[in-house]
Amino acid sequence: MTTALIPYIASCPVGCSTALVATELQLPEGALRRCAACGQLLSAASESRYWETMVSFNAPDFNQPAPRELERRRKVAGRRLQTTARLLGKPPAEIRLIDIGCSRGQFVEFATRAGFAAEGVEPAPDIAAAARASGLNVHSGLLQEQHYVDAAFDAASLFEVVEHLREPLPLLRECRRILKPGGTLIISTGNAASWTVGAMGARWDYFHIEKDGGHISFFNPQSITALAHNAGFGVEHIETSRVKFHEKGEVSSALYTAGKIAAELLNLPAQLAGRGHDMLAYLRRR
Ligand SMILES: [Zn+2]
C-alpha cells in the first residue's frame, strides 16, 4: 500500500503559483494545507486512501434518498433550473443541459420533467447503468471520454464534484469547451471559509475522507472565483447557506439541539455574509 501524497497537492489546484502552508486543521491523515493566495484547503490523504473511499459511490444502495429528502432535492433542483433558464434568457425546451457526476440522475430527471433537454455523465459504472435502466439519458465514464463537439450545450452542472478532484482545472476547461459562449455552469461544493469551519474546525464531517468519501480539496468563494477565471468563466453570483456547530453524536442531544437552534438563527446572517457552509456558484462561459 502506497503512502504517497496525492500527486497534484504539491501546488494549488486552482492554478495559483503561491506556496501551500500548513494549517491548524488536523485530520487523521495529517494537517490540511492552505494556498496562501486563494485559501484553498488540501487534504494530506494518500492516493490509495482516496481511491478506497471513492468505492462507496458505486455501491448498489448509494444515494437512494428517503421520500422527504427526495422532495427537498426536487425543490432545490427547481430553483437551480429556474435560475439557469433566467440567466440564459431561454425557455427550458431550448436549453440543452448536462449534469456531470450525475450519480443516479435525479437532477437529470428533474430537468427533463421541467422541459429541459437534459442528460448526464457518471463515472461509477453500476450507478450510471441504474440511471439508464430507469429511462434517463445518462452516459458512463468521465466527461472527457464522451467527446462532445464544441459548444454542444447551453448549461452544465457540477454538484458536489469539485471537492473530489485532484485537478479541477482540466475538467472546467472541458466544460467551457462544450458550452456555447454565454453558457452557464453551476457548481455546488462546501465552503471552507464558513462560520461552520470557524466554529468546528477539523471536526466538520465534510473534511473527513472516511465520512464524505473522497473529499480532498476544499473551496471558498475566493478560490472558486479564481478557478472560474483560470478556466475562462466569469462569476454571475455565489451564494452560501447553512451553519452548524456540532455533528450528530458528537455531543449530548440537548447540546446538539441547542446548537441546531442557534444555527437556524444564523442561517440568514450567514447567507448575507457569504459564510454558510453550502456554496453554490453560477458561472458564465466567456
Ligand atoms: Zn490558490
Short summary:
The protein is α/β, with parallel strands linked by helices and 286 residues long. The chain contains 8 helices and 11 strands.
How is the CATH topology named?
Rossmann fold
- Give the structural class: alpha/beta
Main sheet overview: 7 strands, mixed
User: What is the N-to-C succession of helices and strands?
Assistant: EEEHHEHEHEEHEHEHEHE
- Biggest sheet, strands in spatial order? 6-5-4-7-8-11-10
Question: What's the CATH architecture name?
Answer: 3-Layer(aba) Sandwich
Q: Are any ligands bound, and if so which?
A: zinc ion
The tally of strands reads: 11
Task: Describe the protein.
The protein has 286 residues and is α/β, with parallel strands linked by helices. It has one domain: 3-Layer(aba) Sandwich (Rossmann fold), CATH 3.40.50. The chain contains eight helices and eleven strands. Strand 7, helix 5 and strand 8 (179-190) form a beta-alpha-beta unit. Helix 2 packs across helix 3 (106-113). The chain starts with 19 loop residues before the first strand and ends with a strand. Bound molecules: zinc ion. Zinc ion binds at residues 12, 14, 16, 35, 37-38, 40, 223.
